[in-house]
Amino acid sequence: MKRFLQILFLILYGFTFSQNISGNVMSEDEVLIPKVLIVNMTTNQKTYSDSYGKFSIDANIGDEIRFAKESYRLGKIVITSNNFQVVKLEKIPQEIEGVKIINKNLAESQEEKLRKDIGLPKGPEKPREKPADAVDDIVKPLIRIPPMVNVQAIYDVVSGKSKRLRRLYKYEDLQEGLAWIQNNVDLEYFAEAGIS
To answer: Residues 58, 59, 62, CA angle at the centre, nearest 5°?
Structure first.
């Protein structure tokens, strides 16, 4: 009976004085941060936040908990209650090398040159209606001798049809690109990079 009371006392003591603290780790713009190293400095217990930025660690009131993640400033909290904790880490600004702005036409010509160098045929163009351009389809034909008037191009530009077509094509291309990424890139890559 004495042994049973001792064991019962130890269990009750453990439940009374140790607790499990849980919470979220997020950036200052409230994006959840995965794989943050979390260390209880008192007990030296370590854990990581999951792919959704959630964490859970054993800690007592008064323990200091530190949060470390590459490209973020070190975060720390002192446990004052067993309430849900929200920890915000500040991103460290990173210097990048100078940015070189490339003319779009130059980039396209480099792509064309590379394609020719490796002997890759140009992909088939999508069968789309070409949106009317105010300069190429209206102004330039009027300057030409003899002048030409393209009524359909004028209507498309004035009514906004050409603008709608450009937006539609841009949207379709974006959706096609996103579908390719979803089908060909593992989503864990984005979680590791901190992209929600």
So the answer is: 180
CA distances from 52 to 85, 152, 187 (A): 15, 53, 13
Cα 70 to Cα 20: distance, rounded to the nearest angstrom: 25
Alpha-carbon torsion angle 151, 154, 157, 161, nearest 10 = -20
Size (the chain), residues: 196
User: Whole-angstrom Cα distance, residue 18 to residue 77?
Assistant: 17
* Mean per-residue pLDDT of the chain: 82
SS3 134: helix
Helices (H), the chain: 2-17, 104-117, 140-143, 151-159, 161-184, 187-192
pLDDT, tens only, 118-132: 877 777 777 888 888
- Beta-carbon contacts of 82 under 8 Å, excluding residues fewer than 6 positions away, are 19, 20, 21, 61
| Model pTM above 0.85 | no
Strand partners, 75: 67
Residue 116, CA atoms < 13 Å, CB-side half-sphere: 6
What mean pLDDT is predicted for residues 69-75?
A: 90
For CA atoms 101, 104, 109, 110, the dihedral sign is positive
- Residue 29: count of CB within 10 angstroms of its CB: 7
User: Over the stretch 5-17, which tens digit does the pLDDT of each residue have?
Assistant: 566 555 555 545 5
Query: What pLDDT digit, counting tens, does each position of 32-46 carry?
Result: 999 999 999 989 999
